[in-house]
Design brief:
The complex is a heterodimer of chains A (630) and B (1038). Chain A is mainly alpha-helical and 630 residues long. Chain A has 21 helices and ten strands. In chain B, helix 6 runs antiparallel to helix 7. Classes of the chains: A mainly alpha (630), B mainly beta (1038).
Chain lengths: 630, 1038
């Protein structure tokens, strides 16, 4: 009997064991949320939008290892790291040591979201699209928030598309609804570059028409948020791309580009956006210690070395959008390397310096064919120009030259972290400290002279000044300004270009003159032909937008699809200056390296998507999306 | 869940209480029988199991072969059973005295094979298993159990990956791999699955505790274990006491161990020459580093202060490390209670020398483990057992856990031209202070050996491990004959307590002037005082199991059945989320066998198991398997075939599964979190999307087939052949390989999917020969070979473009396929560019540098005149050797015994790289092959060239190519034992039982095909080579 009892007991236990509810296996972690959780809570909806902002790149000196990225990869500058740390990207560009598996912009250590643009942009586009598909039914406390957030998501999607178009220059699928990753992706269509730009404009227009999206950010808490001004800027910029020879597929979209740009400029000026034209920090910029030859140079440098403040009436009414992050400490890693003894980075090229006109408004070189030889060693001087003296090249130049460039003989007062040595004849003796130093770039000057290898010395004979606060240094820690991603100055030039190309010569002239007038440069001559006007506009872009990451894209889009960049990007010139014992100088142009840069061939017009992605597109479509040549 | 545990505990408590009541009532008549058991030569056999019926009463014979058994049940038969002998069943028939002679079991048909949750005799087996006895494992004088398996378990690929004392790591794979990853078999200890890593489970057991080890290799034996079975199952059975008088066995071992290989010592003169040679090749002139005068001084040895010749290995390593082991076993018991108790102590020192006077930093290990297996029969119906084992391991390492591996590697980092290990000591005559005695290093070496050994403090890890099982058995014969049930709770806990004492020290580098012995400080490190810290780690593993067994014979029909349920709750020592959450599994299974007339066998198995890794719907899966066997030799028509005394055909087919696919946890859930932050200040929060869910993520199912034949010939030979094929078509792979980025989910968050296909197939052959030539002379010899080849059939790989010489990197190849360039011997007689004109005429450009004269010429497979990754080709055959084999043998002659074991692998090659293979690490590390590197002179003289032109930095040679493919096949004399047992008349004088002296060795010789002797087939410059062990031992029985 007793046996029976514990037998039943035993069976009871056994059955319990076997049938023990299978939820004992549920140890899934808490703290995770679902889509439904997100879109049923006001804060989380906002958070999701915030995540859509996650891949906005910092720009300027924010590429990996404080490089200026496209500035150094174009004919504007040479990166000193190309020799000192050739594995960092500039070295790879110049050596041509890049391929789709060693991608120049993908396979790259990320810095301020630079690198991996393909993955990051698509990821964000998806999030924006998910957001747009849910926002109407989502829990949002105030309707004005819902409306504004929706506009922002449209605008974010437009922004990420514009990034893809600018870097890769290829036609892309248009994502109105989130793609289902599990579905067959092979029936996806890739409309033309122009169609994608129209989609961007559609998103921008949605934002512009939205009543709850502001024109500018007025409180610091909202900084980084997208505005109607950004939407206008994106439209202006991207329609120009669509109309350009590289991307227009043989169609003429210039009239459309002109019309859109005209409207954009009108809208912006109506809303109070204007060129920066008053010195606001005269104590700094108009001080003799800032070493600006005139107020125009001071004004121009002031604009680029200060961030826009967030208020309804900021002193900077030119900037349409500035990136979210500052540009670090330029006096350590950008500007003049020896100031803190580490590295220089961006060295403006002779080609850029040649672009600055003389003060009488005449180009130094023939703007259509600036050089007579392939290697840029024989300048094709503009015979009309009487002010330029090749033996004394840095006088009588466009004020923007003095705002943008440190050249042999220019001066800087700041903290210099070293004692002068006797070989620094212009500056010896001086101990380290806050003092005026003459920037001597002649061959043999041990601190700021030209050098083929030393990381803190210039490769070209010039140092970048545009983004370097006049006297920042270890004792005056002024960080680099937030980068001006879009500014009204560019819009004028976009309009000018579209107008010139569409044959509206006088309007083009008016827009360019507006830009020149701000820095005291004479207006363009009257009666230029369409062709001359196009080249004057391009020339003005090279000067006005110097080192602002436009040139890299401009020289590409101005090419035909079968063209290459051999005229601009193959040979980069340095000014090798010999100092005579009597203190005079001999100026001698030479290539920065005896070998050409390798990054000028046809394939460099469009950058590669990564090899893996190309393989996957090949697998799915039977035909790769890869750009030609990669 | 909590309720459930309580219920089980309450239940068991109740059962215990009840069983006492029953015990009091148990009163039965008993009879006693005695006798003697002899072998075929009339020599008494010790240790024969004698039991009645199904084992209700049980005893063992003593040294004289005598036994006494008290039978208190109604059984009419006594059974005598001993390993290697046929079981003998004798009718009692009121006899008080029964003597028997046992007959050898040539085909081992009666060896009981433990299959984890059930057991079968070898004759009844339908599946594929291999097994080895603890006694056999005990022959190897090594510290870790895993190391003893090599060459002893057919079907288990085994490789010592690290031989570091006390931390040795052995990787083991059942029949290769059944998926594209390396996974070891699960371990079952006394019927309980140990879900933690195999190595860790085995680390706490010594061979002397082990009765047997079985490896389950096919679906019919693995299916029962469901989601844990696919990688094979290692079944460890520990020893049990048997009724009889107390038996004591004591064992002492003293071992000497040293590394089997060591890199060639490059003396300072030679180093200086090679270094100059490398600089010359790089265009830096002929005496860039060392002048001829210096080299002459190095070679003459006149002034060793200024021109040293430092052999760092000799300075810091002794010739031998020592290991001492003592083990004591106690076993015995009576009808009611049996016990087996074991304690082992081990001390293991390392080969490193230290001179820190204030505290000891020398690496060493002390290890104590004990076991107590207790079994009680409470009454006719109820039995209980308690297995308790514990383990304390104390480990000391220098510095902050600087393991021998790191120390060993550091020996080869500093050139022999460096003075050291410390700066000269100078006594200041004024102050009396001692200056100098600071650690010397070089520009490239961060932490020199001396600094790590003597100036970095020490760490002491104390690891304690407790493993306990408490179980009860119920004989339910009152319900129906042959029905039994059992329940067990097992608990394993492991804790690590680490005391860290750390210290920093100043580093000095010799100044450039070779004519003075002066030093300058390197870096900003300072001599600090010891600082103390502590760390702890902990894991637990809780399991419950319930089981029903049924076994009965109906005439010629034999039927068995079992059902079980098992609950597994494991918390690892990981501190990071989500790995810190417990791992839970619920397993159950059914097994039924049917045998007819010792001729036909059928076995059905099914596992129904679930794991917390999966979403509710697909959590539980069935893994059925069927197997059968036909003993042809028992058929009437075979009776007359004399040559063939045994012939059995086996076949099995079924599913096994795996839930441990290296993919992290909770694949079925989206990992979306919400936190503060983000780019936009006033939005305040951010949604972080990481892993995207795959709700259809499910366990991998591997279908396994096995076909076998067992043969017995002339009563002396036995031969087995097994052919197997494993196939999986739902392998978990990273789908990101074929999903494009533009769909928008970051590929790093993209879920894994069950779409891969994988195959593993091969065969195993085993043969053995045993013969008792005379009563004093017994010989045995045997061996096995296995072949396994796997292939990744589909892994969602995106095919590369057409200009690739090979468009796939994984699909169609074995797991772990290496890729590299092929050296072009067609266009270059010796594979090198022997002149600049050869380079120019080749028209080749390398995408990873510019080749120099003396560099390797690679094949331009896609003929585009550029050597880049598109030209890479498959090299070697993946991570697994194709062949693995072993053979062993031995004899006993009178009091002497002798045995040997060879083990080897074949068809295995890999690409080597890194320190010592490439010469460019640190200030140049040269191995024996670099001595004959390419130089113009050597080429002109047609001398042998064994390396590309030396370089100071990474060159076009320092990348994966078949030039660095090493053939890793080897044959090793794994184990050798010579023993002598004292005659009984002598041992009787000491009042002891058997006394045996023995000498044994492990890894005594290795024959390999490596390109140099600098390291063996397992190692390189950065791992401690396999140890060779010499051991002297003594065992005494009481």
């Amino acid at each position: 009997m007793k046996n029976k009892i514990f037998t039943y007991l035993f069976y009871g236990t056994m059955i319990f064991l076997i049938t023990a509810c299978s939820d004992v296996l549920d140890v899934a972690p808490d703290g995770r949320i679902s889509d439904d959780d997100i879109f049923s809570d006001n804060d989380k909806v906002g958070a999701y939008l915030n995540s859509c902002y996650s891949h906005i790149s910092g720009r300027g000196a924010s590429y990996f290892f404080t490089c200026r990225g496209p500035v150094c990869w174009s004919d504007e500058a040479w990166d000193t790291d190309a020799e000192a740390e050739s594995w960092i990207k500039s070295g790879s560009w110049y050596d041509g040591n890049i391929s789709s598996s060693n991608d120049p912009i993908e396979n790259w250590s990320s810095s301020s979201n630079n690198g991996n643009y393909w993955d990051n942009s698509w990821n964000s586009i998806r999030m924006c699209t998910v957001f747009l598909s849910k926002i109407d039914g989502a829990t949002v406390t105030t309707e004005s928030d819902r409306s504004r957030w929706k506009a922002e998501a449209h605008l974010l999607r437009a922004y990420y598309y514009s990034e893809l178009l600018r870097w890769y220059g290829m036609s892309l699928p248009i994502e109105r609804e989130p793609m289902d990753y599990a579905s067959d992706l092979s029936d996806i269509e890739r409309p033309s570059y122009y169609d994608v730009v129209k989609f961007i404009i559609e998103d921008c227009d949605f934002a512009i028409e939205n009543a709850d999206l502001p024109w500018r950010i007025t409180t610091a808490g909202e900084y980084g948020r997208f505005t109607k001004a950004l939407a206008e800027g994106l439209k202006s910029r991207m329609i120009l791309f669509a109309a350009s020879p590289l991307y227009n597929d043989g169609n003429d979209y210039w009239e459309e580009a002109y019309t859109i740009n005209k409207t954009v400029l009108q809208d912006l000026t109506d809303k109070g956006f204007e060129l920066y034209s008053t010195v606001n920090f005269s104590q700094t910029y108009q001080s003799p210690n800032a070493f600006f030859p005139n107020d125009y140079a001071a004004l121009y440098n002031e604009y680029f070395t200060n961030s826009m403040t967030y208020s309804s009436d900021p002193v900077d009414k030119e900037t349409l959008f500035q990136t979210i992050s500052e540009q670090g400490q330029p006096w350590v890693t950008d500007g003049i390397g020896i100031q803190n003894g580490y590295k220089t980075g961006t060295c403006p090229s002779q080609e850029l310096v040649d672009a600055f006109e003389t003060i009488d408004g005449k180009p130094i070189l023939n703007i259509e064919e600036p050089y007579l030889d392939e290697e840029h060693l024989q300048p094709n001087y503009n015979t009309d120009n009487t002010l330029y003296d090749p033996n004394n090249p840095y006088v009588n130049r466009d004020p923007r030259f003095y705002a943008d460039i440190y050249y042999n003989g220019s001066k800087r007062k700041c903290w210099w972290a070293f004692d002068e040595v006797p070989e620094c004849v212009e500056n010896y003796p001086a101990a380290k400290g806050n003092r005026v130093r003459i920037i001597a770039t002649w061959d043999g000057e041990p601190k700021t002279g030209i050098s083929g290898t030393v990381r803190f010395m210039t490769r070209t004979g010039y140092y970048e000044r545009k983004f370097l606060h006049p006297n920042s240094g270890a004792d005056n820690n002024v960080n680099g300004a937030y980068y001006k991603y879009l500014r009204l100055g560019e819009i004028y030039l976009n309009l000018a270009e579209a107008a010139a190309e569409a044959g509206h010569i006088s309007e083009a002239k008016a827009a360019v003159d507006k830009i020149r007038d701000r820095v005291g440069m004479p207006a363009l001559p009257v009666g230029l032909s369409k062709n001359d006007m196009i080249f004057r506009v391009r020339h003005e872009r090279q000067v006005e937008l110097a080192m602002e990451e436009n040139r890299f894209y401009d020289v590409r889009r101005w090419c035909l699809p079968d063209g290459d960049l051999s005229k601009t990007d193959k040979w980069i010139t340095a000014m090798d200056i010999t100092r005579n014992d009597d203190g005079t100088f001999i100026y001698n142009r030479r290539p920065v390296r005896i070998t050409p840069r390798a990054c000028y061939t046809n394939k460099f017009l469009r950058l590669p998507i990564s090899l893996n992605e190309a393989n996957r597109t090949q697998q799915i479509f039977g035909k790769t999306w890869q750009n030609p040549g990669w | 869940m909590r309720n459930y545990k309580l219920d089980l505990r309450t239940g068991i408590l109740l059962l215990l209480l009840l069983s006492f009541g029953v015990t009091l009532n148990a009163q039965q008549n008993s009879t006693s029988i005695n006798g003697k058991v002899l072998n075929e030569y009339d020599i008494p056999i010790e240790g024969v199991s004698v039991f009645s019926g199904d084992g209700q009463s049980k005893t063992q014979t003593d040294a004289q072969g005598e036994y006494l058994i008290i039978i208190d049940d109604e059984n009419k038969f006594l059974t005598f059973s001993f390993i290697d002998y046929l079981k003998q069943k004798v009718e009692i028939d009121n006899k008080k005295h029964i003597n028997v002679n046992l007959v050898p079991d040539e085909n081992h048909l009666e060896d009981m094979i433990n299959l984890g949750y059930s057991s079968q005799s070898r004759g009844e087996l339908t599946g594929a298993v291999s097994y080895v006895s603890g006694k056999e494992l005990g022959k190897s004088p090594v510290a870790n159990l895993g190391m003893t398996f090599a060459g002893r378990l057919p079907g288990l690929f085994l490789q010592e990956t690290s031989s570091e004392p006390g931390r040795a790591n052995t990787s083991m794979y059942t029949r290769g791999t059944c998926a594209n990853r390396l996974k070891e078999p699960i371990v079952i200890i006394d019927g309980i699955v140990s879900s933690y890593s195999s190595n860790q489970s085995l680390e706490y057991i010594t061979p002397s505790e082990i009765e047997s080890v079985t490896l389950l290799k096919d679906a019919s034996t693995e299916a029962l274990y469901g989601i844990q079975g696919a990688n094979g199952v290692l079944v460890i059975t520990t020893k049990q006491g048997v009724p009889g008088k107390l038996k004591v066995n004591v064992r002492f071992d003293e071992s000497f161990q040293h590394t089997t290989t060591e890199p060639t010592f490059i003396n300072s003169a030679e180093y200086a020459t090679l270094r100059n040679e490398a600089a010359y090749n790089d265009g830096k002139g002929s005496n860039y580093y060392f002048s001829d005068y210096q080299i002459e001084k190095y070679s003459s040895g006149e002034d060793r202060n200024l021109y040293p010749n430092s052999n760092w290995k000799d300075k810091f390593m002794k010739d031998y490390g020592q290991m001492q082991r003592i083990g004591v076993d106690l076993s015995g018991g009576n009808d009611k209670i049996q016990y087996f108790t074991n304690v082992n102590c081990m001390h293991q020192g390392s080969q490193f020398k230290t001179d820190q006077a204030d505290y000891d930093t020398a690496p060493n290990f002390t290890w104590i483990n004990f076991r107590s297996n207790l079994k009680a029969k409470i009454n006719d119906y109820i039995g209980a057992y308690l297995h308790l084992s514990g383990n304390v391991k104390r480990e000391r390492t220098p510095g902050s856990s600087i393991f021998s591996q790191t120390l060993y590697t550091s020996l080869f980092q500093m050139p022999s031209t460096v003075y050291g290990p410390v700066t000269p000591t100078i006594k200041d005559s004024v102050t009396g202070n001692t200056l100098g005695d600071e650690v010397i290093t070089t520009a490239m070496v961060g932490s020199p050996t001396y600094g790590m050994l003597n100036r970095s403090g020490y760490t002491r890890h104390t690891v304690t491990n407790i493993y306990a099982q408490f179980g009860m058995n119920f004989d339910l014969k009152f319900l129906t004959q042959g029905l039994k049930s059992s329940g067990v709770i097992a608990y394993q806990t492991n804790s690590v307590n680490s005391l860290y004492t750390t210290k920093n020290y100043e580093r000095y580098v010799r100044t450039d002037d070779p004519t003075t012995l002066s030093f300058e400080k390197k870096g900003s490190d300072n001599n600090t005082t010891l600082s103390y810290g502590k760390g702890t780690g902990f894991y637990y593993h809780l399991t419950y199991k319930g089981k029903m067994d049924y076994k009965r014979n109906f005439g010629r029909h034999e039927v068995t059945a079992l059902a079980y349920a098992f609950y597994d709750d494991l918390s690892t020592s990981s501190n990071s989320s989500p790995y810190c959450l417990p791992y839970k599994r619920l397993s159950s299974g059914l097994e039924a066998t049917y045998g007819y007339d010792n001729r036909y066998y059928l076995k059905l198995d099914a596992g129904y198991t679930g794991s917390g890794q999966y979403v509710d719907d697909s959590r539980f899966i069935w893994t059925p398997a069927v197997s059968s066997a036909w003993v042809v030799s028992n058929e009437a028509f075979m009776k007359d075939v004399k040559v063939l005394d045994y012939l059995k055909l086996r076949a099995s087919y079924g599913k096994t599964a795996n839930d441990d696919d290296n993919q992290g946890r909770y694949i079925y859930l989206d990992n979306v979190t919400f936190s503060g932050g983000g780019s936009i200040g006033d939005l305040r929060f951010i949604v972080n999307e990481s892993q995207t869910a795959n709700v259809s993520y499910s366990p991998e199912i591997i279908k396994k087939q096995n076909y076998g034949v067992d043969l017995g010939l002339f009563n002396e030979f036995s031969l087995s052949l097994d052919v197997f094929k494993e196939h999986m078509d739902n392998m978990v792979v990273n789908a990101a390989n074929s999903v494009p980025s533009y769909q928008g989910i970051s590929l790093s968050n993209y879920p894994v999917t069950n779409v891969g296909e994988y195959e593993n197939k091969g065969y195993e052959v085993q043969a053995s020969f045993t013969k008792n030539i005379s009563k004093n002379f017994k010989v045995n010899i045997g061996g096995f070979m296995m072949y396994a080849k796997n292939k990744e059939i589909y892994s969602a790989e995106a095919e590369k473009s057409e200009d690739y010489a090979f468009r796939n990197r994984t699909e169609g190849y074995s797991y772990g396929q290496s890729w590299g360039y092929l050296v072009d011997y067609e266009n270059s007689s010796n594979g090198f560019f022997n002149s600049q004109s050869e380079i120019d005429n080749s028209g080749l450009s390398y995408s990873f540098g510019t080749p120099r004269v003396g560099d390797l010429r690679y094949k331009d497979l896609n003929e585009d005149n550029t050597i880049d990754e598109k030209d890479q080709a498959p090299i070697g055959n993946g991570v697994m050797p194709r062949y693995y084999y072993g053979f062993s043998g031995g004899f006993t002659y009178k009091s002497f015994d002798f045995s040997f074991l060879f083990q080897g692998v074949a068809k295995w090659s890999s690409i080597y790289s890194g320190i010592g293979v490439y010469e460019t690490s640190y200030e140049g590390v040269y191995g024996s092959l670099h001595r004959n590197a390419w130089t113009q002179e050597r080429y002109n003289n047609e001398e042998e060239i064994t390396a590309p032109a030396l370089s100071l930095t990474t060159s076009t040679n320092t990348c994966a190519s078949d030039y660095y493919e090493y053939n890793r096949s080897y044959l090793r004399l794994k184990n050798l034992v010579i023993g002598y047992t004292l005659p009984t008349n002598i041992s009787d004088k000491f009042k002891t039982g058997k006394i045996r002296f023995y000498l044994s060795g492990q890894n005594l010789f290795t024959w390999d095909k490596m390109k140099s002797d600098d390291f063996g087939p397992e190692g390189n410059y950065s791992t401690i080579p396999v140890y060779r062990v010499y051991n002297a031992g003594l065992s005494i029985g009481f």
